[in-house]
Amino acid sequence: MEITQLFSSMPFAELLGIEVTRAEDGMAEARLQMTRKLSSNTARNVGHGGVAFALADTVAGAAVVSLTGEPAPTVDMRIDYLKPATDDMTARAEVVRRGNTSAVVDVTVRHEGEGDADAEDGYGSAQGDEIARARGVFKLGVEEGSEHDRDTDEIGNSP
């Protein structure tokens, strides 16, 4: 299965509507359509911070797997939220360091589309604006069948 299909068909990515559109040579891109169900605000369409985080984590993982061809679980990820997510989002991830046991990935999440000063949403966010910047660390060398690749029960416990 192609990397973009693999990541786009993960149950959690499907639930949120994350679509990985490109993954090659340590770089990946993804998009997410902002819907009312992803909003943290009942009065306006403002994406919950966890949505941008999940998009960043997913696209970062795809970037790593595009280099290694192996599962690469997230060890750590931090995110800086710059503006509210009020429209569809895109994310771009790039592996900036690959060591023997881990890889570091930088991610930028933006409102989809080109910058347009007339597209203000009331929060000072226009198309193309950065919503968030993230950096993740991913474990390398995870083999199929290892504890990081095992099935778990409904609450995440290994069998």
From TrEMBL:
Signal peptide: none annotated. Residues 48-115 form the Thioesterase domain. It comes from Halorutilus salinus. The keyword Aminoacyl-tRNA synthetase does not apply. Residues 138-159 are annotated as: Disordered. InterPro entries: HotDog_dom_sf, PAAI_dom, Thioestr_dom. This is PaaI family thioesterase. GO terms for molecular function: hydrolase activity. Residues 141-153 have a biased composition (Basic and acidic residues). Keywords: Hydrolase.
